[in-house]
Each structure stands twice: as C-alpha cells, then as structure tokens.
Design a protein that fits this description.
The chain is an alpha/beta fold and 340 residues long. It has helices at 10-21, 35-44, 61-71, 87-95, 112-130, 161-170, 188-199, 252-262, 280-288, 306-312, 322-339, and strands at 2-6, 27-32, 49-52, 75-80, 100-103, 151-157, 179-184, 206-208, 220-222, 228-233, 236-240, 266-271, 292-296, 318-320. It is elongated. GO terms for molecular function: phosphorelay response regulator activity; protein-glutamate methylesterase activity; protein-glutamine glutaminase activity.
Length: 340
C-alpha cells in the first residue's frame, strides 16, 4: 500500500515513518509539509492512503481533504496531536471524506509497538477495505411485516458522513415524532463528541444510544461503541462484539438487518456517503420487508461507495440528492401517521 504523509512536524513524520516501517507491505510514497503541497502531490502521484494532519501552514487538513477528495479521491485518515481538543476539525475533515482519525504516535513512549498499534490497525483495515476483503455481510431473511404504529428512521454513514448526517438530521423538524437511530463509522473515542456536535445543529435532541434501551420517539440515538449496535426487540438495543470479523465497526449492515428482523412498526432506511459496501445488504433486507429505503445519489456523496453498492443490488427504492432526503423522510412518516 502506497502512503502519503501530510504533516509539518519533523518529529511527527519520523514517528509515522517508524509505524509504516513495521509492515513490509506499506510504503511511504511522498511527504508534504502543508495541505497545498499535499493537493499537488496527490494529483501527481495519487497514493492508496493519506495520513493527514489538521493544523498546518498555508492550507489546513480540512481544506486539503476537501480538495483531494474532489480532484483525486483516495482514502484519508486524520492523524494529528490532541484529537480531543480538535474534535470539530476532525468532524469537518470526516465530512469532507476522511475515513477515520487517530492520535499521532509519539517517539517518547517506552513501548513502540503499543504506541504504533492504533494507527497500524487502522492502516491495515483500510488495506483490507481497498482490496475488497471487508468480510461478507450476513444477509438477513425478510420476515413478514407486523402491524404497529411505531415509526423508526435508520441511518447509516461512513466517509463524508458527519456533514451528511448534519444535513439530514438538521432537516427534521422539532415536532418530528419518529424514533431515529444513526450508525456512523467512527471510533468510539469520538462518538460522544460527534453526538454533541450533531446535537448543536439539529432541532431534535441527539445523544449516544445506551445499552439496553430502545429507539426513542423524537430523539436521535447515535451508535457509540466500536461494537455493533443491534436491535433485539422493538424496545431494546444492545452492543455486541460479534460478528468479530467485520471490518466496519459499528456495522451498518448489522443494525439494518436487525431492524428488518425485529422492528414491529414501519421504518425508513437511509444509506449515506461512505467507502465500501457496508449497509447495502442491510438496506436490501429492509426493502424486502416492505420499508421505504433511500440511498444518497452520486453527485451529492463525498464518497460514492456504500450508496453505489446499495443501488447496484436494488436495495434502494429511491435514490435522492442529500438535500432532499430529510423532506422525503418527513413526508413518509407523515403518511404513515395519517394512515394510522
């Protein structure tokens, strides 16, 4: 795997090179000291993966991510110091198409293997994703729909997801009474910060889903763990490690499939921007159950991977631009309510 490094700190570059050197399958193809240089280098020699710092001179990592994803898209992971204090910029970069984020490994930690572990795992997982070895989703059976007045909106997103989720959730009015559950591919270290970030932009309250609770009417619950969020009954969700071989954690497929299996009322499934195929089979299971299923269109997707996979297998009953999805959800739920 060819890797580009974007960082203006010499010590950080040395630390990143040491991590990459631990795996002979990884190769540093270029190093840029600012975002503007990274955009030029990515255009000339597009790598498989870019390790992107946030705070740099000339052009920061958010703008560089936006330009690279627009011109020469590739996998991007934010690697920067003190991610907690830079949470807003992390979510902005992910909204532009970055896949994940991790703290910069340091040279001063006594156990270099331990310090390298988080970043190296993310790099290897992305390698599996790029090679199409993410692990097949377990296709759910499609039981007959059961009568019920409950309404659920199930959302899934990955690269580019924070901004897409903010747009969709921000378009739901304060009086919206359906329950909403969102699964975003994000490390659990950032899940609480993302819930707070989304809450500040939405009329509906947004918080992390708690172990053992069910979907809450008029509330957005965000998956908040590296384990998978499962619906085990209409009134209970749990976090589970299995299937342990899934690259995507938390997996959208896992949640969507359990919605198709266990939800008693009506539902809407929405698959937004993201790299890979997660969510496509789960969305198909929801469609086969008779639910409205929506995939984001190519033109409005930061990364047209997951919605494309859903469209290819007929999982989406409708393919819509991002800006139209919230209004479609509201119309669908209002129609369900009027029928009830």
């Amino acid at each position: 795997m060819k890797i580009g490094i974007v960082n203006d700190s010499h010590l950080a570059v040395v630390a990143l090179r040491r991590v990459i050197a631990l795996d002979p399958a990884l190769e540093v193809t270029w190093v840029a000291e600012d975002g503007e240089s990274a955009v030029r280098l990515a255009a000339a020699r597009t790598p498989d993966l870019i390790l992107m710092d946030l705070m740099m001179p000339v052009m920061d990592g958010v703008e560089a991510t936006r330009r690279i994803m627009a011109a020469t898209p590739c996998a991007i992971v934010v690697v920067t110091m003190d991610l907690g204090r830079n949470a807003t910029q992390v979510f902005d970069a992910m909204g532009q198409g970055a896949i994940d984020a991790v703290d910069t490994p340091t040279l001063t930690q006594p156990d270099s293997q331990l310090a390298s572990g988080p970043l190296l795992r993310k790099i290897r997982n992305i390698g599996r994703l790029l090679e199409g070895r993410a692990g097949p989703a377990r296709a759910a059976s499609a039981p007959r729909r059961k009568a019920g007045t409950e309404r659920l909106v199930a959302l899934g997103a990955s690269a580019g997801g924070p901004a897409a989720l903010a747009t969709v959730l921000g378009g739901l009015p304060a009086g919206f009474t359906a329950a909403v559950v969102a699964v975003q591919h994000v490390d659990e270290a950032f899940a609480a910060g993302m819930a707070d970030w989304l809450d500040a932009q939405c009329a509906l309250p947004v918080r992390l889903a708690r172990e053992g609770e069910g979907p809450q009417p008029g509330t957005v619950l965000l998956a908040g763990s590296n384990d998978h969020l499962r619906l085990v009954s209409a009134s209970r969700m749990v976090y589970t490690e299995e299937p342990s071989d899934y690259l995507y954690r938390p997996s959208i497929d896992v949640f969507f499939e359990t919605v198709a299996q266990h939800w008693r009322g009506d539902a809407v499934g929405v698959l937004l921007t993201g790299m890979g195929r997660d969510g496509a089979l789960g969305l198909k299971a929801m469609r086969e159950r008779g639910y409205l299923t929506i995939a984001q269109d190519q033109a409005s997707s930061a990364v047209y991977g997951m919605p494309k996979a859903a469209a290819a297998i007929g999982a989406a009953s409708e393919i819509l631009p991002l800006q139209q999805i919230a209004a479609r959800i509201v119309r669908a739920c209002n129609a369900i309510n009027n029928q009830g």
